[in-house]
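User:
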Amino acid sequence: MAGQFDGKVVFITGAARGQGRTHAVRFAEEGADVIAVDLCGQIDSVAYPMASRDDLDETVRLVEKTGRRIVAGQCDVRDYERLQDVVANGVAELGRLDYVVANAGIFPAVGQQRLDISAFVDAIDVNLKGVYFTIEAALPALLRNDDGGAIVITSSAAAFKSVSTTFDTISHGAAGYTAAKHGVIGVMRHYATSLAEKNIRVNSVHPGGVATPMIINEAMGQLIGDQPEFGAAQQPKLSMPPMEPDVVTDAIFYLCGASGRYLTGVALPLDAGLTLK
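Assistant: Predicted structure:
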């Protein structure tokens, strides 16, 4: 049975685990080949364990299990030249590029590290500049498609609502995360406007808390325990179970697929009402 992305190729950052892995496997199940990257290392300002090379290898195994091809490499999205090389190598092997899912991100708003100025710098470098570098690295291949393509940026509900809600919850990490996720909307609208004539659609998705290691970890638990007002501010309006990564994948499929062919420049909240006034 044909999948909705048969013959297509998707480039996904932060693909070693969590949302990125789910996106990669689901795209493969729908017929796409995958170019996947992840840092596979730790950033000092991040208090929870980040993905490893073993995690990325597991993503490769799961994609190949579907029968699709994958080109995977370790890459820091802050390294523009390395991103260019990975995309070029992937396109050389897989033949084309149709979709970009700029998913890589960090949450340096937990742990003692959140109080260091480096947490602000790293949040901007990874979550904002890394998105811009990802898209720029992919553009030459996307522009070769006569039928265009689609870019989806993973932002956050923090693009509409500050992570810090009281004086006691402010930190450099929370400020950097909030600023970066707000900035991603500007990057999205910049590309949506400028790439429309090339039939490349650009949108962003804005999840609330997703059940991945970025959220479910000891440092987050400690922060909520120490600052219950922080946890209370993250509660959505709808009474829903914790959001699993496949919910975000569904939204990305909508934006990349035929159903979303008239959508560009959209910042799509996916937060069970968290950001409702």
